[in-house]
Amino acid sequence: MNYFIVHSxxxxxxxxxxxxxxxxxxxxxxxxxxxxxxxSDARPKYSxxxxxxxxxxxxxxxxxxxxxxxxxxxxxxxxxxxxxxxxPPDMRMVKSGDSIIYTLPNGRxxxxxxxxxxxxxxxxxxxxxxxxxxxxxxxRTLKLxxxxxxxxxxxxxxxxxxxxxxxxxxxxxxxxxxxxxTGGRISDCALVNDGAFTHFALAVxxxxxxxxxYVKAAENGAQTGGSTLWESNDIDMVxxxxxxxVLTVNHGAGGRVYTFVNGEKGFKGTDVKRMNxxxxxxxxxxxxxxxxxxxxxxxxxxxxxxxxxx
Length: 310
Fold this sequence. Notes:
Layout: E1 2-6, E2 11-16, E3 22-28, E4 31-32, E5 36-39, E6 47-51, E7 53-59, E8 65-71, E9 74-81, E10 94-96, E11 99-106, E12 109-118, E13 121-122, E14 126-131, E15 140-143, E16 149-157, E17 159-167, E18 177-182, E19 185-193, E20 198-205, E21 210-217, E22 223-232, E23 237-243, E24 246-253, E25 256-263, E26 266-274, E27 279-286, E28 289-296
Parallel strand pairs: 1-27
Antiparallel strand pairs: 1-2, 2-3, 3-4, 3-5, 6-7, 7-8, 8-9, 10-11, 11-12, 12-13, 12-14, 15-16, 16-17, 17-18, 19-20, 20-21, 21-22, 23-24, 24-25, 25-26, 27-28
């Protein structure tokens, strides 16, 4: 996975390389800088967050959990949790206040745990929930306007459920709120918050076809929508964003990206462009939080920056 961090005059791309290292490249004055290695020997599932300055949380191949923080023109790495002998988390980790949230293997499911730091020492991890991972980064996160974090994941209960928990600035975790229930399988999810509601785009796989589904939900879990925007047999991934108060849903299928714009009469779909290359998800971090986008898999830093809200 890779991330784009939006600044007022530049764009920072952080991505995982074939040599098991995490790299950074900056787009400024119309061109990309050379790649700089930020962390070597890292596992592919990592997280980038804005904590005053951009920082990366990942696990080294040796097991230690590393915090890499930007300090002026350089990056500094520090071990925040000794991980020798610990099963490798199969996901990007999330930092909230003095807490780190990550997962551990649990058969076909994953166990979501939280570990808090008190007086400079890490306490024993505590189980939050069991859930089913998404393919790329296991669960989704969204930073709300007041600094709280929305943690979105799916779980099985007679049918497959998608829902969320709210984590406050002190790392306290709220109850699970269900957003969408289906007899199929939710293969991908993207979300964005407009200050009042959270908007979800879902790829739902059935026995024959896949559906692109839109859902709007309030913080108490009350939902509006659940409408199907598209059906086909090859929906690969989805993304969603709000720009200039316009809600746009994208999905990738067969190397082509499609878009749906929510206007006065509902969603209108158009064919955007064919990339002629395998696609992958990337994540844009700006003042509004994190948004999903779709980029070429073989060029994770190659993207039209005009789509970003500064």
